Structure formats: structure tokens, C-alpha cells
Amino acid sequence: MDHRYLNMENVQTREDGEDLFIEGYFAVFNSTYELWPGATESIAPGAFDDSISDDVRALYNHNSDIVLGRTSAGTMEIKQDSHGLWGRIRVNRNDGDAMNAYARIARGDITGCSFGFDIAAQETDYRDDGSIHWTITKISPLYEISPCTFPAYQETIVSARKKDLADIEERKREVWREMMKRRLKGE
Fold first, then answer.
1. Segment 38-93, tens digit of pLDDT
2. Is the pTM value of this prediction over 0.85?
């Protein structure tokens, strides 16, 4: 499972009668995320097509003990539009952890979001300047979204992508070697 940390866009808290909500965009399409210098990634519009109906949880700081909402329970809804992945979590007033999370978001102390998912398809762009950009075209499944203080497993993500890059670079060298061998043989 991969995690990504993003600033929550237009995420707000609001009251509607007795209900409290956390709502906004938990992922934004075509927004570039820097993994490390020279390596970026973005999420393509439609990437959540196959996962929008998954049983997704809203966790707080990726803590599976603090479930803020769940799509199958009807306490969270998510939808994809042309801008990104929008969600609304109905906060449980009887849950102290959920109320604390709500208060921290309302004060502006928590402004980030991370989400857990698997990459089902992606495109890789090797750029002339030596950088690389991945565009995630299909996310499936989407496990969870998490308003959070800091990104979870950020180093793991970077390490995984750096390993991907090392593997890709080695494959490119192998192809180049084979091409040069064929040229030397006159093929």
C-alpha cells in the first residue's frame, strides 16, 4: 500500500443542525507532488474510477484505531469530479477522538491529508532534463483517507520509488547494451 501526503484543498469543518462534518478535496488531479529532487508524480483525472465504490475508511493520522467514518457505514461519502477526490465525513459527537480531530482541523492545526492506495496503472515520463514524472492513471483499491499532521511512511514511499527508478535505469542500460551489440554485429 502506498501513502501520499497532500495539503487538503478546500477542506473545512461545518455544522448542519446536530451534525458535524469534515469535507473537501482529499486528492487533487494534475497537481505535481515532488517525491525527491528530479522525481515527481501526479494523479490523472479519472484515476479513482475503479476505487470510488470501495469500502473506504477515514482514519485520523493513519491510525486504524481512530476511524472517523466509513463509506459502507454511510458515515462518509466520496466522489470523484473533474477537480479530484472529494469527501465528506460525518463526525461522531460521542467519539472523543473524532471530536478532537474535528477541533484540530477547525482551528487550522491539521491542514494535510494522506491516503492509502495501490497503484494499478501509471505512465512514466523520462524528461530531457534527466528528471522523471509518474502519472498515476488508476488507483485500486483505495483503502483510506486520513487528515494528518505529517505524511505517513514518506521515506518508505521515496525508497520504493527510488528502487523503481534504479530498476528502470538498469533496464534502459540493458536495452542500450543490446542495441550496441547488434550494431557492432551489423544487424
1. 888 999 999 999 999 999 999 998 899 999 999 999 999 999 999 989 889 999 99
2. no
SS3 78: strand
H or E, element range at 175 = helix 154-184
Cis peptide, bond prior to residue 141, ω within 30 of zero: yes
Beta bridge partners of 4: 115
Q: How far apart are CA 5 and CA 120, in angstroms?
A: 19
Asked if residue 78 lies in contact with residue 87, where contact means CB atoms within 8 angstroms, the answer is: yes
Please report which helix (H) or strand (E) contains residue 14, including its range. Answer: strand 9-16
How large is the greatest C-alpha to C-alpha distance in the chain, in angstroms? 79
CA dist 114 and 108 (Å) reads 16
Task: Say how many C-beta atoms besides its own lie within 10 A of residue 95's C-beta.
Answer: 14
For residue range 10-21, list pLDDT tens digits in order.
667 777 778 899
